Amino acid sequence: MDSPLSDGLMGEGGVDLVGSELSLENLLLAAREHYKRMPLCVVEDWVILDAILTEDEQAKVAAAGCQPMFLFAHNVVHDEQRRFEPGDWVRSTIARTFNDGYIFETRNTVYLLKGPGQRKSSSLQGIFSIF
């Protein structure tokens, strides 16, 4: 039987993606032009998890102005608010938007995805088992 983590995060499959290739400094400068007040957090070794939802759950997510996606990153490179130390891991809250292949925005943070990553589907149980 599959565990919640093998269900989505650590399991096989998924689509390989590439985030930004900009240097840390240039990535932060480019993002700051569009996100004046939102805190920025740069991550590497990341996985976008598409939540597998029922139609009712999808409707609630859409009504809240969100997308059924979460971000898990194995490596925080830089966090402006110093909530995470370099090298820490992070799991985001639900996404508001995902743009340009590397800008993952939640209600309280803009995550900048650097380098290679993946996108996979996962149950909510699998996503929320990452604490």
Supply database-style keywords.
disordered N terminus; 131 residues; alpha+beta; 8-stranded mixed sheet; 39% strand
Could you explain how this protein is built, in words?
The protein is 22% helix and 39% strand. It is an alpha+beta fold. It has one domain. Strands 1, 2, 3, 4, 5, 6, 7 and 8 form an eight-stranded mixed β-sheet that branches. A hairpin with a 3-residue loop joins strand 5 (95-99) and strand 6. The protein is globular.
Major pleated sheet: 8 strands, mixed
Average pLDDT taken over every residue: 89
Please state the CA-atom Rg, rounded to the nearest Å: 14 Å
Strand/helix succession: HEHEHEEEEEEH
Number of distinct helices:
4
Which structural class do you get from the secondary structure elements?
A: alpha+beta
Q: Percentage of helical residues?
A: 10-25%
Distance between the termini: 21 Å
As a percent range, the share of strand residues is: 35-45%
Count of strand segments? 8
Low-confidence stretches: 1-8
In terms of topology, how is this protein built?
Blueprint: H1 4-7, E1 15-18, H2 24-34, E2 40-52, H3 55-63, E3 69-79, E4 90-91, E5 95-99, E6 103-106, E7 110-113, E8 116-123, H4 124-128
Parallel strand pairs: 2-7, 2-8
Antiparallel strand pairs: 1-8, 2-3, 3-4, 5-6, 6-7
